[in-house]
């Protein structure tokens, strides 16, 4: 009998020396969402050789047509010349990198889709959620728009972009996308939004810029629908007791009980990586830190996909210990 069992984490690995900005998979130890092993003997399963030459912040989507999609940021930070965050924010890639699979094992070649508007600085940390009202997938990402106007000439490529905001576009096939529109703004900038839909609410998690006045840091908001105007903040400063700098909130539901998990990615110290919180009352945002969490070091910014037992068994067999 095929039933929910196990979890797959799609992520990249932070490494300032080697080139690890690629797609990695980690599999839960059985049905335990707090213990993990990195698959493929710790080696990446996919890489991007086009665009910037690297990928970060991957999201995996279970399509209604039986096709899985990995959607990632086109960004290589640890390149031989070293990082240049001004360049990444203001002149970075406007593309997403996308792979497809029907079995989570064999994947297509990557394709590069431009989603950020003309003059935007980047398209970071894409996520997707299905909209049953329209039949579309809502794909959202962080971008800074040009402060000198939406159209830039080649001679103006040094123009600044404004604070990061969350933009949203629609797709049905992860090939054709509608023009992106602004979805969420916060004073000083907001990045890394993810969304979790329950039977009664839509929950969004994001990172408010640490330097913004009255920063919420990583926060949790609850609303009645994705595009509703009734969102309220139910939790903020999540992860601040762990480290001064956390980002990349990731949320998912337990396969077996009325419990949710929220992971935050700390980057203030080495080794970097996720720390976990949990709640049985997601409506209230009552997040409590998990005391025991086993995840390989430097596992960075991705998404967790709850699996069916047949999918778990196939991955476990294909990537033996």
Automatic annotation (TrEMBL):
It comes from the Bacteria. InterPro entries: GH43_arabinanases (IPR050727), Glyco_hydro_beta-prop_sf (IPR023296). This is 1,4-beta-xylanase.
């Amino acid at each position: 009998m095929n039933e929910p069992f196990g979890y797959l984490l799609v992520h990249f690995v932070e490494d300032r020396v080697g080139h690890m900005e690629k797609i990695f998979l980690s599999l839960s130890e059985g049905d335990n969402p707090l213990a993990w092993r990195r698959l493929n003997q710790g080696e990446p399963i996919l890489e991007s050789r086009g665009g910037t030459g690297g990928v970060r912040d991957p999201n995996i989507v279970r399509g209604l047509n039986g096709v899985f999609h990995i959607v990632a940021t086109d960004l290589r930070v640890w390149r031989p010349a070293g990082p240049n965050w001004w360049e990444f924010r203001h002149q970075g890639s406007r593309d997403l990198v996308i792979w497809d699979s029907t079995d989570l094992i064999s994947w297509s070649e990557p394709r590069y889709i431009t989603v950020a508007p003309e003059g935007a600085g980047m398209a970071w940390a894409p996520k997707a959620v299905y909209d049953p009202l329209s039949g579309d997938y809502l794909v959202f990402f962080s971008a800074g728009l040009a402060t000198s106007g939406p159209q830039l000439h080649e001679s103006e490529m040094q123009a600044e972009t404004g604070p990061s905001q969350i933009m949203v576009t629609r797709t049905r096939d992860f090939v054709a996308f509608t023009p992106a529109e602004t979805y969420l703004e916060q004073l000083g900038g907001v990045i890394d939004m993810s969304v979790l839909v329950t039977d009664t609410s839509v929950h969004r998690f994001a990172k408010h810029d640490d330097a913004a006045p009255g920063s919420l840091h990583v926060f949790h908001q609850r609303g009645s629908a994705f595009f509703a105007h009734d969102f309220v903040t139910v939790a903020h400063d999540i992860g601040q007791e762990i480290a001064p700098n956390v980002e990349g909130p990731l949320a998912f539901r337990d396969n077996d009980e009325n419990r949710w998990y929220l992971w935050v990615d700390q980057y203030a110290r080495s080794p970097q990586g996720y720390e976990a919180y949990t709640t049985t009352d997601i409506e209230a945002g009552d997040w409590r830190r998990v005391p025991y969490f086993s995840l390989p070091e430097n596992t960075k910014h991705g998404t967790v996909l709850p699996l069916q037992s047949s999918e778990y068994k196939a991955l476990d067999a294909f990537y033996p210990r």
